[in-house]
Amino acid sequence: MNRQDKGAIIQDLSEKFANNPFFYITDASGMTVATTNKLRRLCYERGIEYKVVKNTLIEKALETLDTDYTPFKESVLTGFSGIMFHPESGKDAAKLIKDFLKENKDSISLKGASIDAELFIGHDQLDMLANLKSKAELIGDVIMLLQSPAKTVIGGLQSGGNKLAGILKTLSEKEAA
Predict the structure, then answer these.
(1) Which residues in 101-113 are b (16+ Cβ under 10 Å) and which e?
(2) CATH of the domain at 111
(3) Which domain holds residue 54?
(4) How far apart are CA 24 and CA 142, in angstroms?
(5) What H or E segment, with its residue span, contains residue 4?
(6) Cα angle 29, 16, 65; round to 5
(7) Are residues 8 and 23 in the same domain?
(8) Family per UniProt (predicted)?
(9) Rounded distance, CA 72 to CA 62, Å?
(10) Distance between CA atoms of residues 165 and 159, nearest Å
(11) What's the structural domain count of the chain?
């Protein structure tokens, strides 16, 4: 690979890192060709882009960004590295890795992830990343929490109105009798 090809790859990766707030760096060095093809197929089906890139090219692409990825240089960018990009959700790639590991034990491991410029390093972070709520889910939870007291007040007012109507009806029947 010549210098021009490397420059094009670095430019492409820089754009992907800048446009995707969620990416995962994995180690799939122990996988066979058939297992790798299964992983790529699963990524394609779930809308996740998977690329295998040299660590030096990943490092140079990360240097072009505003976020400090120095911790990745020390512990993540070693050995075999594959990158997973998903533009919409920070947890979809983590779920994919967990699902893939159910059928293919010890085939792939999480080296590191960046979720909205927050860094997560190590395979032990996988469970937490898979359970992350998306921004839309968090907004929905907040709206539900805000609506709950209002619904209680409205319900109380409506039931109180029915009681008041019943009392007035009873009083008017007593006066008429």
Answers:
(1) beebeebbebbbb
(2) 3.30.70.1730
(3) 3-132
(4) 28
(5) helix 3-19
(6) 100
(7) yes
(8) Belongs to the universal ribosomal protein uL10 family.
(9) 9
(10) 10
(11) 2
Q: Which of 112, 123, 36 is nearest to 77 (CA)?
A: 112
Q: What is the mean pLDDT of each run of 10 residues along the chain (177 residues)?
A: 85 88 87 89 91 89 85 85 84 88 86 86 87 79 78 67 71 76
Residues 109 and 143 both lie in one domain: no
pLDDT value of residue 105: 82
Residue 143: the pLDDT is 85
97 shares its domain with 165: no
- In angstroms, what CA-CA distances link 29 with 26, 35, 108? 9, 11, 8
Instruction: Supply the Cα-derived Rg of the chain in whole angstroms.
Output: 27
pTM of the model: 0.73
102 in the same domain as 155: no
- At 83 the pLDDT is 92
CB atoms within 10 A of CB 144: 10
- Going by C-alpha positions, the residue among 100, 107, 13 that lies closest to residue 55 is 13
